[in-house]
TrEMBL record, chain A:
One of its GO terms (molecular function) is glutamate synthase activity. The keyword Nucleotide-binding does not apply. It comes from Rhizobium straminoryzae. Residues 74-332, 356-404 form the Glutamate synthase domain. It comes from the Bacteria. Keywords: Oxidoreductase. Pfam families: Glu_synthase. PANTHER family: ARCHAEAL-TYPE GLUTAMATE SYNTHASE [NADPH]. One of its GO terms (biological process) is glutamate biosynthetic process. The keyword DNA damage does not apply. Belongs to the glutamate synthase family. This is FMN-binding glutamate synthase family protein. SUPFAM superfamilies: FMN-linked oxidoreductases (SSF51395).
From TrEMBL, chain B:
GO terms for molecular function: oxidoreductase activity. CDD domains: GXGXG (cd00504). It comes from Rhizobium straminoryzae. InterPro entries: Glu_synth_asu_C_sf, Glu_synth_lsu_3. This is Protein GlxC.
């Protein structure tokens, strides 16, 4: 009797998985790296790896619908004559007109204003619509200086000097020619249709000593009224925070690797930067070492999605958080109602990231007038406000459960970690223990 | 004429006074003495006043100037007239790096030499340097004119967009996508006007060579990757 070996099913390589193989073929066919928008898609340790402990015999909770839980925050209390007062500790991150349509920028302004928070310009300058619809507007001071002028500096409510962002610490940007409409070209003083490079470093200062002088100049130009933020990508959060503070920042904005971008090389998005979770404690430690925690405010961004994320960031020591990708989703980005059109573009709702190509079915990451008209800025603004309010309610729910009458009273002691990695990064005990890696010499 | 002695008066008082000018004010001429390398001297002016600075200044003198005439009777540190919108800034001595960086309009005149990255990312400003300039000048220059009566350092006009560069002396090397271009009558006319406005004498426009963008890097193509 002969023995017949049963066939084994085909086995694919874990190293050369389908995505990797497709990327190799794509690179071979096109000769160019993949450029896309958004943040990292890889799984990294995140706020999901933390849990709140809630109340117990030694901690009593607050009544959900009766007892107040304060959510407001003041940013820029260190030097600015006119600090910013926000009703909620959730701000809208910088995203440019150019990368986004005018309607999308207007929607962000409307939504933020309804919710009592700030929105932020981006690379490309400030539009009148954006200023008009944003009660509190932060004006980004970027390496490219596209659209930068003293009039807009003075009509801003705060200035954010962008040193880097989480999606690409150390990298500049590229707005591809197909998104350069007449108006975008004029605002950036560049010919229509060319690829517009955004520089990776500032043209007139290098290093923290120069930054101190640059901040002095901006304060003098704006008569010391405006809070000055310094935004850095998650790279060396302890030292970057300390150096930003040394240079005179009122607020430090720290953007982890999950933070999005309008367009950058995929290899940059996926392989450079630190997870947001790993950035917070070193930054807070730097502020504490300098005796300036809560005096220089810390804004955390990169992958903030829910009130739970907000509460966890604040518990770890942040003063506020900032959202970009989530805000775009709230106003309609990647909405399944456009599935047919996403498929025509070779993708699917939830995965669309070719924001640089300007063909966004949702009318958000485009300069095509017909596509842009699909987004009603009033309706979209309302959706963003709703989302911000839900996040705030969620954060309050958690804070009350932890016995806090103010979101900012949340603390690391309220948390435990589900994984060793999260315990090490957040410096909170592994669930069921009183230990985290690095504590006690291990 | 208001006089600000920066050895005794805070910088804030000077800039505050320059920002608070009412339309039609009689105070249209200001004098600054003992600047002693102060940074951010006379920044953010948005009135057509004149400011005479007697001595050398530090970083960002006349930064974001919009309409004023600022004259530095000395040398200037990094970033003089950075992001100027309009007006005139004159440096009687030398200027450090990043002179006129990202400037959008107006005229910057440097009667001595300028260091590296002169006119970096310029966006409409006109810069006239009586002497020579350092390396990487006009890097990513978008618009405006850079006129150099002396020599230019390495990598002039690297990654240039539409800024126009005129150099009378030698150019150590050209940066990526920067090439020499023919001097046409319209360029000679523009150059003559700029030289006159900048007080350059004894020099003819025909003595200059013109440089501009080859425009080969305007849209990314993999075959140009070696240029980066």
């Amino acid at each position: 009797m002969s023995y017949h070996n049963p066939p084994t099913p085909p086995r694919k390589s874990a190293t050369f998985d389908d995505h990797t193989l497709a990327e190799i073929r794509r690179a071979a066919a096109t000769g160019i790296y993949d450029i896309r928008g958004g943040g990292t898609k890889r799984k990294v340790p995140h706020f999901d790896d933390l849990l709140f402990l809630g109340a117990s015999i030694s901690r009593y909770p607050l009544e959900g619908y009766r007892e107040k839980c304060e959510t407001s925050v003041v940013l820029g209390t260190r030097f600015a004559r006119k600090p910013i007062e926000l009703k909620i500790p959730i701000t809208i991150a910088g995203m440019s007109f150019g990368a986004l349509s005018g309607n999308a920028k207007e929607a962000l302004g409307r939504g933020a204003t309804l919710a009592g928070t700030s929105t932020t310009t981006g690379d490309g300058g400030m539009t009148d619509e954006e200023r008009g619809h944003s009660q509190v507007l932060v004006y980004q001071y970027l390496p490219s200086r596209y659209g930068m002028n003293p009039r807009d500096l003075r009509r801003a409510d705060a200035i954010e000097i962008v040193v880097g962002q989480g999606a690409k610490p150390g990298g500049g940007g590229m707005l591809l020619g197909q998104k350069i409409s007449d108006r975008v070209a004029e605002m950036r003083t560049l010919p229509k249709g060319i690829d517009q490079r955004s520089a990776c470093r500032h043209p007139d200062w290098t290093g923290p000593d120069d930054l101190e002088i640059k901040i002095l100049e901006l304060r003098e130009i704006t008569d010391w009224e405006k809070p000055i933020y310094v935004k850095v990508g998650g790279a060396r959060p302890y030292y970057d925070t300390a150096l930003a503070v040394k240079a005179g920042a009122d607020v430090v904005v720290l953007d982890g690797v999950q933070g999005g971008t309008a367009a950058t090389q995929d290899v940059f998005i996926e392989h450079v930067g630190m997870p947001t979770l790993a950035c917070i404690r070193p930054a807070v430690q730097a502020l504490q070492d300098l005796g300036l925690h809560r005096k220089v405010q810390l804004i955390i961004s990169g992958g903030i999605r829910s009130g739970a994320d907000v509460a966890k960031a604040l518990a770890l020591g942040a003063d506020a958080v900032s959202i970009g990708t989530a805000a775009l989703v709230a106003i309609g980005d990647n909405d399944p109602k456009w599935e047919e059109e996403y498929r025509a573009l070779g993708t699917t709702a939830g995965a669309y990231d070719d924001w640089h190509e300007g063909r966004d079915p949702a009318g958000i990451t485009t300069q095509d007038p017909e596509l842009a008209a699909r987004l009603d800025p009033v309706v979209a603004g309302r959706r963003l406000a709703n989302y911000l309010k839900v996040m705030t309610l969620e954060a309050q729910t958690i804070a009350r459960a932890c016995g806090k009458n103010r979101l900012h009273n949340l603390e690391p002691e309220d948390l435990c970690a589900l994984t060793m990695e999260a315990a090490a990064m957040a410096k909170v005990p592994l669930a069921g223990t009183d230990w985290y890696p690095g504590k006690g010499g291990f | 004429m208001p006089v600000f002695d920066l050895s005794a008066t805070p910088l804030r008082a000077l800039n505050s006074a320059l920002h608070g000018l009412e339309q039609g004010t009689n105070d249209t001429r200001f004098e600054v003495v003992n600047p002693r390398g102060h940074h951010a001297v006379a920044v953010g002016i948005d009135s057509p006043v004149s400011v005479e600075v007697h001595g050398s200044v530090g970083y960002y003198c006349a930064g974001m100037n919009d309409g004023a005439t600022v004259t530095v009777h000395g040398s200037a540190g990094p970033g003089v007239a950075e992001n100027m919108m309009s007006g005139t800034v004159i440096v009687e001595g030398d200027a450090s790096q990043y002179a006129g960086a990202t400037g959008r309009g107006g005229l910057l005149v440097i009667k001595g030499n300028a260091a590296s990255r002169c006119g970096i990312s310029m966006k409409g400003i006109d810069i006239v340097v009586h002497g020579s300039i350092g390396h990487m000048s006009a890097f990513m220059g978008q618009s405006g004119h850079l006129v150099v009566c002396g020599d230019a350092g390495e990598a002039l006009g690297d990654s240039l967009y539409e800024a126009k560069l005129f150099v009378r002396g030698s150019v150590k090397s050209l940066g990526a996508d920067c090439i020499e271009k023919p001097m046409k009558p319209k360029h000679l006319e523009k150059l003559a006007r700029l030289l006159e406005k900048a007080g350059v004498t004894g020099v003819q426009p025909e003595e200059f060579r013109r440089y501009g963008s080859a425009r080969k890097l305007y849209n990314f193509h993999i075959d140009n990757a070696d240029a980066y």
